[in-house]
Each structure stands twice: as C-alpha cells, then as structure tokens.
Amino acid sequence: MRRFLILLSFLVPIFLAPSSVRAFPDQERLGVTGTSPPFNFGFNDTVTGFLLTDDDTMIASYGETLAIVDLGYFALAAEQPPPLDIDADTDGRLTAIAYSSARNRVYAPQDDGDCLNYDLSNITVDPGTVTIAESTEMGAIAIDNNAQNAYIINKNDNTVNVLDLAVLAVGSIIPLTIPSVTAFNVTAAAHDSLTNEIYFLTDKGVVFFMEAAGLGATAITIDPANAANLTAAAVTPNGLFVYVTNQTENTVVKLDANTHAIVTEIDFTENPAPTGIAITEVTNPTATYAYVAGSKGVSVINMADDVVLDMGTDPAVAHEPIPMSVVPKNVTASSAADGYVYTANATQTVGIISANPWVTISSLTYSGGGSSMGLHESFTIAFQADEMGTAELRSGGDVSGNGTLLVDSTGVTSFPIATIDTDVTVTVNYDDNTSAFIEGANEVFVFVTDAEGNTGRMAATVNVDTPPPAPQIRSTGFGNASIYVTFDRLDVADMNNYNIYVDTDPAAVLTKTEIAASPAQAASGDTQEAKVSGLTNSLTYYIAMEAVDAGGNVSLTRSSTFPDGSPAFAIPQETGGPCEFAGETGCSLMRVKASPYPAILISLSLALLVVFRIGKKKASILILVAATLISSEAFAKEPSSQWWSLEVKTGFWMPKNGNVGHFFGDCCNLITRIQGGLLAHGRYGAEAGVGFFVKDGQAAGLITGEESQDSFNFFMMPFETNFVWRVDYWNWDYFLPYLKAGVDYVFFRENLQGKTTKGLKFGMHGVIGAQLNLKVIDEDAMRSLDDDLGINDMFLTFEAQYQYINNFGGKGLNLSGPVFSIGFLFEF
Fold it and tell me: What is the pLDDT of residue 158?
C-alpha cells in the first residue's frame, strides 16, 4: 500500500497538470483580442513555401509573390521584393522555395520552367532568373552543403535538375522512376546536412534519395501498394533520421539516414491527414520534438522514444494534438532559445505555437506631441502580456535580446506584470539613454519573461530627431572676394545642410544671424567644401558653423576653431592665373599684323636655336655632318616621287618662363598637333600645322602668391609654319634625320572663375628630329599600303623643338620652352 501511494504521488501531477506548465512550444497563442495571431500577412493564395532564415525572419511564397515577415514586429518587413514582371522575365507562379545561408539567397522554382534567385541583401531589386526547362512546371527544391547545387524537380517528367549555383546552369538531369508506375508526383524535398543527401517524396509511397552531385537516385518503398501520399519530410538536427508524413495511412515514417531502412511507423490516428512537419530542439526540458500538422491541429512527437505526446484537454483521448483555431498545413520552427513554432494555415494565415508570453503594444506617444523624440524629451509606451512576469525594454539588437537595456524616467530597468492583459506604461527619457539611440528610426523591443524563464517579445519603432552636432572646421582657403571652408561631413541619417557665418569680429560671428552660405549635405565623403562669396578682399573673416537636419533642428553650439583650437579665419584676395601674373591683358589679339615676319626669320631662328641652345661646338659638328651627307656620292639616289606628308604627334611642353611654369609645372604638359606639308624630292618641304593644349589649375593670390581655391582653365591652340629639310640623300632610307624651322601663332584663352582673357601670341621655333621608316618592320605591309591607299612610307618620328613664343620680347605671356614629341608621319 505504501509503495502504491508513493507511485501515485508521482503519477497524479503528470496526468492532472495542464499542458501550459510545459516550457517547450505547447499551445497556440491567440493574442489579447483573440484574433491576432493567427496573423493575416496578406497571403491570398495557397502557400507553396514556408521557412525561417533565422529567428528574426520568415519567408513564404504563394502565387507570384515572395513575402518577407519581420518576426520582431510580427508584420511584413519594410522592404519586400518587387512584384514579378513579364518585362523582367520573372513572372510565373512560385512552386517552392529554398534558402541558402552560405549565399544569403532564396531560390524559387516556377511553373514556367524558370528558377528565381533573390538576393536578401538587396531584396528590393528584381530577382535573377535562370531557365531550367523551357515552359515546364518546376516543383520541389533542396540545396546541398555549402550551397554548391540546387536540386529541382521537373514535374512534367519527374527528373531532378541539378543547378550549379556558382554559374547558375544545369549541370545534370537525373530521372526518377518507380517500377510498374507510369505516373506519379514528387511532393516534397529535404536535405540531410550530415550525409549531404537529398530526399524526394512522392504520392506513390516511394522516397528517393541521392548523394549530393550524384549521378542517380535510389528508391525506398514506404508503401508496396504504391498508394500512399507522402506529403512532407524533416531531418533530425543530428542528421541521423528522416521523418516522412504519410497522409494516406495517417502515419509518420522514421527512416535511418545511414541505412535508409524504415525504423518505425508512428500512428497518427488522433490527428489524421498529416501535411507538414518540422523538427526542432527545445528547452525546459532540453529535448528534440517533431511538430506535425494534421486535420485536427499540431501533434508533438518526442524524438527520444517516438511517442506522440498528449497535448489535448480530453482525459479520455490519448495523443491529442495541440488544438488550433485554424487547420494548419505547413510547419516551421525557430531555434530552441527563441521557442516558436509557426504554421501556415488553410486560410492563408500564420499561427503561432509557443510557451512564451504573448506581448501586445497598445500605444506609443512622444512628450513633444509629434512623431519623434527629441533632446530633453521622452516617449511613453503601453504594453501588456497574457502571462504574469517581468518586462524590460531594449533598443536595437534583435529578437534574442542583445540590444541596449533602457532605463525609465524613475531609473528602473525592469517592470513587473502583476495582472495579465492589462496595460503597463513606461516612460523613457532620451537624456537618460542617449547611447542607446541613433538618429532616425530605432527598433525598441518589449521583452516579457514569465516565472519559468520563457520570454516573449514585440517590437515598436521609436523615432529620434535630435539636433546634429556642430561640424568640425578642418581648413580654409581664399579666392577673389571669397573664402572656402573645408569641414567634416556629418554622418547623421537626416542631415540636410550646414549654416556658415562670417564676420570680421571673432566674437560677433558666434551670435550672428545672417547666414553667409548654406551648403547642402554632400552625398558621400568624409569632408566637404563650401564657398562664401561677396566678401571684401584683404579683410580677415572669422568663421563659425552649425548643422541643420531635415526636421529643422540646429546644432546647439557653433564650431569656430580649427582642430588645434585656434580661431578659424580666412583672408580673401584677388587671384590670378598665368595671364594675370604675366601681365597679360589679352589685347595682343588686336595688335597682330596681317602679314608674317619676313622669311629670313626662319633661317635666323634655326641658326639661333642651333648655336645658342646646343652650343657652338655641337652646332659645328652638326653642320659638318650634314654637309658631308649632302656631298656624299656613295649614298646618292634619285629624287623621290613623293610630294605630300601628314604627321600626327603628341608630346610634352616644358615652359621655361617662371610665371607660366609656376602654374603648369616645369614638365610634362601634354600638347597634341597635326601637320601637313608639301615635299620636294623628299628632302625639302613646307608645312603648316595646328594643335591644342588644355590645362586646369589653381589660381594664386596676387598679393601673397599663395595657391588659392579659385580655379582656372587655360586653352591654347598653336598654329605654325615650317621649312623642312630631311637628310634624304641615300638609298638606305630607314632612318632619316631632319631639321625644321618656322614661325608660330598661338591663340590662348584663360577662364578664371568666369573672367575670360584671350589673345594671340607669336614667335618662332626650331626642330631637330629623326624618322624611323616602319617598313623596317614589315616591308610587304608598307608596299600594300602604297598599292591600296597611296601611302609610300610611314615613319615613327622623334623630335625636340624649342619655341620662342613671346611676341619677340613683348609683354605678357611667354610661352617659350622645349617640346619633346613622338608621332606618325605619312608620305604619299
């Protein structure tokens, strides 16, 4: 008798205790009003795919829609994929979905032979699409380890199409066949990450399995009569077993993932017609359970002994399912730490099974009366739960509760819930929680934990709109009647513009109301620059700045110093470019004579250049060599029949005038020219040419000579005439030296902040160079050019030119200096 009483003391609590004492997901949550959940997320068609990417995000497919649900708010996420569009080649019903965490993508086969792939990191753009089998309905899908391949069923011929996810191309096609069965449907697919095998279910009582990237599939017969409709499969977390729902025979079949043999069949008479299954680890007690959707609710199987738990309230009926307000069809589950099981119901709603308290947020208001919380303001939130416990508020983070704990206006961080379904009101001051908020939208979670340690949650958006900080002034510059200010671009979500104040009094600028400039927030960058115009040259202007956000909030203080603490100031002064510093007024354009200098200048320029630029000794040697070549009889040849030449060349101008060189530098100013000429006997010629030169630069202060922030553009178009002498006196003409001399006319135009100076400069030049005949590379090709285009010879030219372009000692711009060029010369 004593033993019986002891045994009874253990059994009575087990049989009499209500299911709510269990800590694993054990009952449908209906919310405070009893209508939400189940949630209506706008699903308007049969759900074909239903999964979680993590505890925060649910994804479902129906019709031509992929829906993303935020499980912090239990609402559709703010960002959704665009509607499927025939113009984007994405239209078609979605028949299934699979998620790859490795690629952060959702893959969705369609009924038109395509498979869409959605990039979850860029979900608002059209998904990519790849054709698996043209105009064919695709079906179930599974993805192998590391997302190497997706295995997609072709419902027309029951083949497995192996899609290589790296290149998005079908690598192989594997047929599925059932002996003596001519027609069947593949109903579902599952992947075992332990064995890296893929399973396919059918409506004829057969399960196929295949190795990842394998060449064939093997059949497992569940029903020898080929009559059982297998509707869903799930793999245990350890990968050792696969559970398959048999809708026809009202059983769940357990398969050994290593031997692929049937281990047991679990009777589901109390919850017939199973349609979906999810296996998840749970806590309190730590175990692994399967949740199976059937016509009467959701049954729970303890994976340790494959026993269907009794989750009902009728003592006379064993193994009852969890009663649901709507017939469930699909099932998916969150992590053990989160503790939620979700059902996609026959009414296109989503139900929730959990032991966690259900939290409802009743209202959220701001002390300022607007739609956001500002500096020295607060928000007040009212919430309730369907179980007693303790609440806390956290800003940021996710559903796991890793955000920043908030303190209320009385300094408290936890709030008791003594009465269920009754509002608890909490006021949170911004000033007490500044580090917990960012400018703009903040996700604030209400977490409620019951006496057994189960935690429910609900999120709300708290908008914060506070004054931006004052920007740091980094440096200043000057221009003509203007100053430039470089400052830190604030990384604030709702930044709109900056106010700049200037004054000759360093104290007055801190309180001045007249805004000197109001630059808008730059789209990117760490710093930005603004210009303040309309100032007086040579005066010292002190600078102060403040920032303004989109809501009109202005920085509480103004910045007025450089990073080292010294006052920020700048002094505008008149600026100039090369024309101004050279004293160029541009009236040289009106002084140009109609006729050029006498031809004798050509000879004089050559003589002067040769003697004075390369030295008397070198000049004597050059003239001696030239005379020797001219008088040589050994190399003499008949004059050429070539009469015309065309040369295109580019090179570097190195100005020697100090004013010009200050703005352009001493080296490597690119100038391009084209020249055409008339030849006599291939040795003598007259040429004319034109070129162009463009350069941007920074103007300088006319008083200090320092570089300013004003910029200028300088354009130069040189015109030149040449007398040419080529040392072409021998039959071997692969390498020909030449000399040139001539006069120059250079049109120039300078634009300095809208002020234009233009004119014409003239002078003379001399050239020494050499031609390399390209027929040395391919003589046949050159002969072909002669036959086809009339080009007798093509040369690569190298030359050094020195130009005196200063109006022969006149005032203004001095464009003198050497030019080193390389080009192509055509003779025809």
Answer: 97
pLDDT tens profile 327-382 = 999 999 999 999 999 999 999 999 999 999 999 999 999 999 999 999 999 999 99
Give Rg (Cα) of the chain: 43
Task: Indicate the helix (H) or strand (E) that contains 613.
Answer: helix 600-614
pLDDT bucket at 520, cuts 50 / 70 / 90: very high
CA distance 504 to 571: 10
**Across 78-99, average pLDDT:** 97
pTM of the model: 0.72
Neighbours of 134 (CB within 10 A): 8
Tens of pLDDT, residues 575-632:
999 999 988 877 544 333 333 443 334 444 444 443 344 444 444 444 444 444 434 4
Query: What DSSP letter does each residue of 151-177 carry, written as one string?
Result: EEEETTTTEEEEEETTTTEEEEEEE--
Kindly report, residue by residue over 630-669, the tens digit of the pLDDT.
344 334 444 445 578 899 999 999 999 988 988 998 888 9
Read off the pLDDT of each residue in 727-743 and give the average, rounded to a whole number: 82
Cβ(262)–Cβ(253) under 8 Å? yes
Q: What is the token pair recorded at 46?
A: 């049969």
Round to the nearest angstrom and report the end-to-end CA distance of the chain: 128
Vertex 721: Cα angle to 716 and 726 (nearest 5)? 125
Cα separation, 108 vs 91, in Å, equals 12
Residue type, 412: V
Q: What is the pLDDT of residue 461?
A: 98
- SS3 of 403, please? coil
Backbone angles phi, psi at 260, to 5 degrees: 65, 25
Q: What share of the chain is helix, strand, coil (3-state, %, to 5)?
A: 10, 45, 45
CA 600 – CA 260 distance, rounded (Å): 105
Name residue 201's beta-bridge partners: 188, 207
Neighbour count for residue 156 (Cβ, 10 Å): 13
In contact, 799 and 636? CB cutoff 8 Å: no
With H, G, I as helix, E, B as strand and everything else as coil, classify residue 578.
helix
Report whether 513 contacts 479 (CB < 8 A).
no
Cα separation of 341 and 354, whole Å? Answer: 6
What average pLDDT does the segment 269-292 reach? Answer: 95
C-alpha distances (whole Å) from 168 to each of 128, 149, 162, 235 are: 10, 9, 10, 27
Residue 78 pairs with which residues in a beta bridge?
Answer: none
CA distance 93 to 137: 9
Tokens standing for residue 215: 């060449």
Distance of CA 453 to the CA centre of its chain: 41
CB 677 within 8 A of CB 655: no
Within 8 A by CB and 6+ apart from 493, the residues are 438, 439, 440
Degrees, nearest 5: CA angle 234-235-236: 125
Token duo for residue 359: 């939290």
Residue of 459, 356, 351, 273 whose CA lies nearest to 60 = 351
Q: What number of other Cβ atoms are within 10 A of residue 514's Cβ?
A: 7
